[in-house]
Automatic annotation (TrEMBL):
Residues 56-79 are annotated as: Disordered. This is Putative regulatory protein FmdB zinc ribbon domain-containing protein. InterPro entries: Regulatory_FmdB_Zinc_ribbon. It comes from uncultured prokaryote. Signal peptide: none annotated. Coiled coil: none annotated. Residues 1-40 form the Putative regulatory protein FmdB zinc ribbon domain.
Amino acid sequence: MPIYDYRCSECGQTSELLVRTSAVPACPACGSQRLDKLVAATAPQARTPGIVSRARAQAAKEGHFSNYNSAERRRIRSR
Ligand SMILES: [Zn+2]
C-alpha cells in the first residue's frame, strides 16, 4: 500500500498516510476528509512548465488529482 503526504484543508496539518485503494483518508488531527494529496517528490522542482506538466502527467498516473479541476477529475476517473 502506498504512503502519501496529505495536507488537511480544515486544520492545515500535514500527515503521511497509508492509503488503501478504496478508502478515503481522514486527517489524524481533526478527522476531516478534506485532504489535499501532496506530490512531495516533485514539488520542490516544479518551477518550469515542462516539469510541471510532467508532474501533472505522473500525478494523474498515480491517482493524484489535486492539480486538476473538477471537470478534469471526472474525465480521468471515468477511464
Ligand atoms: Zn485536519
